[in-house]
Amino acid sequence: MKEGQNVILSGNPGTGKTHLAISLGIKACMEGYKVLFNTVPIFINKLKECKSNRTLRAYQNKFEKYDLVILDEFGYISSDKEGAELLFTNLSLRTGRKSTIVTTNLSFDRWGEVFIDPVMTAAMTDRLAHKSYLVNMNGNSYRLKETQEWLKEKIK
Predict the structure, then answer these.
(1) Res 77: pLDDT
(2) What φ, ψ does residue 153 adopt, rounded to 5°?
(3) Which residues of 68-89 are buried (b: 16+ CB within 10 A; e: fewer)?
(4) 64 contacts 93 by C-beta, under 8 angstroms
């Protein structure tokens, strides 16, 4: 993955998106890169907290120094307007300069559910998807398969 390159891992729950994102993050750490992993809801809450404490600029300065940011579970929980705007602003700061991996269960046409504003949705989709690796990970859930196998063993 080149500097400024994004990866979007999209697909059904349980298909390995988070597992793959963490693996890429570990590999980047092993090669000396600074990596941040967070879920989108926790990241948005952190941004809101920093904004209300008037420490947002300091956090943004720290955030900009990460070579790779992994944001997990984009779209699992909707955000309010302020959260969507903070997410947009901070991801936009990285566009073309630093790498970002996003995991999501939503196709691009449903990103409006997260960003609310159609103009912001179009801009964020454009920025994140431009020159990105888009990995479709739709398929059957590994967790569901494992649970079904476990139940079969218990019934025997």
Answers:
(1) 80
(2) -65, -40
(3) bbbbbbbbeeebeeebbbbbbe
(4) yes
Q: Does the predicted model carry a pTM greater than 0.70?
A: yes
Tens of pLDDT, residues 8-66: 999 998 899 999 999 999 999 999 999 999 999 999 999 999 999 999 999 999 999 99
Phi, psi of 16 (to 5 degrees): 100, 10
Q: Quote the CA–CA distance of 105 and 92 in Å, as a whole number.
A: 21
Which CB contacts under 8 angstroms, 24+ apart, belong to 110-115? 110/75, 111/75, 113/75, 113/78, 114/74, 114/75, 114/78, 114/79, 114/84, 114/87, 115/84, 115/87, 115/88
Q: Per the structure block, which two tokens stand in for 41?
A: 């809801």
Whose tokens are 């449903």? That residue is: 110
Distance in angstroms between the alpha carbons of the first and the last residue of the chain: 47
Give the separation between CA 74 and CA 77, rounded to whole angstroms: 8
Residue 18 identity (one-letter amino acid): T
Neighbours of 127 (CB within 10 A): 17
